[in-house]
Amino acid sequence: MSTSGLVKCVVWDLDNTLLRGTYLEALPDRPPADPALASLLAELGRRGIVHAIASRNPPEAAEYAAQATGCAFVAAECGWGRKSEALARIAAGLDIAVDALAFVDDDPYERAEVGAALPGVRVLSPEDAAEAVGWPEFSPAEVTEEGRRRAGLYQQRQRRQRAEQAFTGSREEFLRACQTQITIAAASPADVPRLRELSERTSQFNSAGQALSAASIQALIGVPAQDVMTVRLTDSYADDGLVGGCVIDRRHERVWTVPLLMMSCRAIGRGVIDSLLTWLAGRAAQRGAAAVQVPCPVTERSVPLRLALAAAGYRACPDQAAGHGRLVFRCDLGAPLPALPDWVTVPGEA
Amino acid sequence: MMRPGQAATAAIADELRQVLATATGRPELAATTLDTPLFGDGVALDSLTGTLLLRQVRQRFGVDVAAEDLNLDALATLGTLATFVCDRVVSDRVVSDRAVNRGA
To answer: Domain holding B29: CATH number?
Structure first.
């Protein structure tokens, strides 16, 4: 689940749900979209929630539904297998937790099957869905520019993934070929809404394991011996905007602590978290620190973050519990530090 | 002569080479040597490729490396990972063989 329990993606059935009728039985005229649900798709889209399809129909039904509803679906699973398996594939493809999905289907059997197999999914009838628009899990506190563009960003991500599969060369060569640019900079007050949204939406890559309020992020900006950093990501496919960040506590000069390290799962595999950790170690060493420590949850969800920490040379300190089920991971800065890749820029630093 | 454990480790290492090549999209990793580091200059595992590798290890061998190895030291080299997996697969097999023998 996302840190807050927000729904990130709604998976829709088509026949007698998004469509008024059955796609295959309504030849030659295809069934029209349900107008109330089509406007619900648009409203949730404005809130940064993306949509996908799980339908017992041929793949062209998804294209038809996109046209009929005017919605840019980020994934479509059309086939005759179990819908719970379709939902699991959709979540894996988007790199989000299954628990961040909602599922809408008119068929009580399908709802029961998904509900039993994936208990974390919000399972709704079309009637429930019309009301759900007012529920907190569909109501992010604030919608950022990244949120409004999210469906498009997922589609560009899929184009990038297809290109990467066809690319013969290393990941680094691919990142270079698509002109990846990572920018690490101190946060300004204008970044607060997006940082808050990231702290709420991230789960795999959130070392704090809990969301921060806008006020608490704002309160850290400009405070002596503390830094709030942002990471922006762009390449030839898309400008993903602000995809990551961290809070650095330098009050203990020799051992810096990072109470929050986070990244949008959309940015996985593009060098963001690795660049941030490399920059952090370099900066800490330059300013005379001997170690950097990051409290991090030790759960199945946090494995990608632990991999990034392990790759950057962090070790767990099993005797140092850090609250919220976290352990302290520590990186000693004695060894020679790796250089930042040349696609990472840090304005204001040579 | 190769001990039975060594033969099993070698077989697991072979399978891991294929997984590495697929997870990273780098066919040359099918020739990774046992002492090649998996992080940093060797294979350069990151969050994504590391997650794909660990997922495959769990699916193929039933070994959850991240759950048992806090620091992911098993990922130091291809050889350490193969040994880590082999130790668990072989001990599971011994336990299940004994159970079968008792039942017989």
So the answer is: 1.10.1200.10
Question: Nearest residue of B to residue A270 by CA position?
Answer: B48
Q: Is residue B103 part of a domain?
A: no
B72 domain-assigned: yes
Distance from C-alpha of A215 to C-alpha of A98, rounded to nearest angstrom: 30
Domains, chain A, ordered by start: 9-138 (3.40.50.1000), 169-345 (3.40.630.30)
- In Å, the largest CA–CA distance within chain A is 74
B78 belongs to a structural domain:
yes
- Whether B54 and A167 lie within 8 Å, measured CB to CB: no
Whether B104 is covered by a domain: the verdict is: no
A170–B39: do the CB atoms touch at under 8 Å? no
Nearest to B47 among A170, A300, A304 (CB): A304
B52-57 contact pairs (CB < 8 A, 24+): B52/B19, B52/B23, B53/B16, B53/B19, B53/B20, B53/B23, B54/A303, B54/A307, B56/B19, B56/B22, B56/B23, B57/B16, B57/B19, B57/B81, B57/B85
Nearest to B51 among A307, A315, A316 (CB): A307
Determine the distance in angstroms separating the CA of A303 from the nearest CA of chain B, rounded to an integer: 7
Which residues on chain B place their C-beta less than 8 Å from a C-beta of chain A? 24-26, 39-40, 44-51, 54, 66-67, 70-72, 75
pLDDT digits (tens, 9 = 90+) for A151-202: 888 889 888 988 988 887 778 888 999 999 999 999 999 999 999 999 988 8
Tokens of B68: 């048992």
The domain in which residue B28 lies consists of: 4-97
* ipTM value for the complex: 0.84
Domain count, chain B: 1
H helices, E strands: number in chain B = 4, 0
Pairwise CA distance, residues A183 & A139, whole Å: 30
Taking an 8 Å cut-off on Cβ atoms, the answer to whether B66 and A300 are in contact is yes
